[in-house]
Fold this sequence. Notes:
Layout: E1 2-6, H1 11-26, E2 30-36, H2 40-45, E3 69-75, H3 79-84, H4 86-92, H5 95-122, E4 127-131, H6 136-144, E5 148-152, H7 173-202, H8 213-219, E6 224-226, E7 243-245, H9 258-265, E8 271-274, H10 282-295, E9 299-302, E10 312-315, H11 320-323, E11 329-332, H12 336-345, E12 349-351, H13 358-367, H14 382-395, H15 397-408, H16 412-426
Parallel strand pairs: 1-2, 1-4, 2-3, 4-5, 5-6, 6-7, 8-9, 8-11, 9-10, 11-12
Amino acid sequence: MKVAIVALGSRGDTQPCVALGRGLAGRGHEVVVVAASRYAELVARAKIGPGDVPVDGRSGGPVGGAAGRIEHAPVSVDPVAIVESEEGRAWLRSGPLGFVRGFRTVVEPLAEKLVAEVDAACRDADLVLAPALGALGRHLSDRYGMPYAIMHFQPSEPTTEFPNPLIPARTLGRLGNRASYALVERLSWLLLGGMANRLRAGVLGLGPLRGSPFALDRRDRVPVLCGVSPLVVPRPRDWPGHVHLTGAWRLAGGGLPKHVEDFCRAGPPPLFAGFGSMSVTEELAEQVVGALRLAGMRAVLQGLPAAPGEDLLLVDEVPHDRLFPLVAAVVHHGGAGTTATALAAGVPSVVCPFFSDQPFWGRRVEALGAGPRPLPVSRVTARALAARIRQAVLHCQEKSAQLGRQLGVEDGVNNAVDLIEATRSSG
């Protein structure tokens, strides 16, 4: 089977897609990951080679000696370059509604070329896996007739049990919780629907969608694969059967640079602090460093404009799955990928959410006992963050380690591949 996986976000969105692609290739399928050019090496490292030992299909290697392939189809839109631009930084600071509106402002000038590149990469696929935002799976299916499934990186199917993860509230009551999903979906389509239909007509030669793609997908019971562990978010009782919590799609990183490992082992376990692709000001970096001093912690800092020191190591991109088991706690923004990696490593998190689904993940970390109450980035001071760090290190280690052991035996990639193959067989 030829499978196209559309991964148009940052590394936190792309890496799980590559992990899923590797799992599919390990079962003998041909996979193309459609992603920004900067992630070519990430895909290349995931390739199944002739030296891999055939396995029984539960550990991600080739089955019966017949390995598939995973290839990279590059697209010219670079999400990192976008968010690092002045316009992109303003976009990320604009809040949930501003983010969706900014998506149109920032991305629409690039969208025609992007959709054409995605179309070219996916036209021969037997199955397309794509996120819900943008409805690319539906557009491609309408054009070529192949089936598609939706990938979720947060639990975004309507439920009465908690609000849409983009809503910064613990609960709105059962009716309010379910209504929040309709609100987010309608606002998204109101802001993006015109652009989507223009692209359908101008690039794909299709007529307009008659209604929200979210509602159409739900009506058609399009399979949804949510790369989240049910140990982290228990499956809502009111979810329909075509929506699946598979567990996280984890991809082993490369080796940890020797100087990073040496630093971690040269004294008490350090802290890790990094905020992914979020815009970090010098003021925020000063507060983080001040908190480390107050808490008496050494630290590995990623992406923070700070001066290195004997107790502070500055790093660029490093494999979190290799680094986090060596640290005492992780201070981060609450991105889905970083949160999942910290939980799997069995170390506490101090979540400082910026926007989007990050407050949701901060609340989940707190509810699991794997970290203190989230501290929104707008409220970060050295004193407040130091208090959260002390709480994480002193009171959250045991529950974090216990959860990490449970997550360590969960295989989200193979669970997802099982579902994909079962869906295709039954179809």
